[in-house]
Amino acid sequence: MFLLPPLTISCSHEHAGFAGTVSISARTLHGTVEDIRESLRRSGISKLVLVNGHGGNYVLSNVTREANVEGSHVTLFPARDDWDAARREAGLTTTASEDMHAGELETSLLLYAHPDVIREDHRPQDHLASTRTHLLLTGMRAYTDSGVIGRPSLATPEKGEAALASLTASFAGHLRLLDRPQAGGHTPEQS
What we know:
With about 190 residues, the protein is mostly helical.
């Protein structure tokens, strides 16, 4: 197993209303991942796990589907079900819709893994914007001045630890399915 360096700039267009946002197009991200896959394939590596750290990278779902047309070659992690399980295991109060950015989940993960990056004044930063009907049209700036959409006041290191443990277990499931041999064109769930 090889660990590739992260792509540190991706599709963050919804954050464009905030100074300093740097983003690449969905075409560029798609092309970059495909170029990496092709390079790995030439080296005899046909399986790839895409670990997505940003919800705005919608194109990675398409990359994954296209790569798997003729067999299981790519998995995208974490998937929505992985996040849902992590939220349940951590006992989070907020829903995924309420907790879009810098809220209970993300702050809990950071309080556990990297508490030094969380400001002391994070608790009073709650900002609710559960209905974001025109997010794709207007970006996040139309719904928040701070970038927070969620409730960081509910975050704890314990919730972060439980969420990360759940994500770790989910990741193992992705690896097992990706590594599973396929016969007769069946999907891993059918075998």
